[in-house]
Amino acid sequence: MANGETYDRTTIVLHWTTAILVVLLWIIGQTADWIPVGPVNTDYWSVHVGLGFALAVVIAWRMIWRRSGGRELPAADARPLHVLAKATHYGLYLLLLIVIVLGVVNAFVRGYDLFDLASLPQIGDRALRKPITDWHGLAANLLLGLAGLHAAAALFHHYFLRDSVLGRMLPENGGSTEHGVDRIRGSSC
């Protein structure tokens, strides 16, 4: 695969950082209530809130980078698949923004104690905690579902269409032939 056919390093790092943060945040959000109320639960939720704010920074950086310095690649698909891919990407960004905004609002409506070191002030009507939490959870579940479809589409491209779509989002020097990275990128060995 030619150098121009992969995304730039910053775009790749932001993509995979986003993916990892989304999965970690979802897992923490789904399992935190299993931990009894106390210091461990406070710390577990503190990690969730901290990673949520980190995700907000990554997404802001990603959107700025995409508009200013990120490499634009030509469409990898015929028109109908390209339109579907674009719609999926816009859907992912929209859901990311909704989840982040609801998460930040939720953190302040609740007034989180972060690691027993600092506290987010409680702002707003406490009666909104339950509905905001529910909307945040629903949006996060929809985001994870759409991200799963996005990943499945990349694997479909790789295993069935046998093209280089998956390789476009892999680091250029991120592996060797023995790990299959060259094969994923579509280059010959």
What does this structure look like?
The protein is mainly alpha-helical. The chain has a single domain (3-185), classed as Fumarate Reductase Cytochrome B subunit. 65% of the residues lie in helices and 2% in strands. It has helices at residues 9-31, 39-68, 79-110, 129-161, 181-185; strands at residues 113-114, 118-119. A two-stranded antiparallel sheet has the order 1-2. It is elongated.
Which descriptors apply to this entry?
189 residues; mainly alpha; Fumarate Reductase Cytochrome B subunit; elongated
CA-atom Rg in angstroms: 19 Å
The overall number of domains is 1
Main beta sheet: strand number and arrangement? Answer: 2 strands, antiparallel
Distance between the termini: 11 Å
CATH architecture: Up-down Bundle
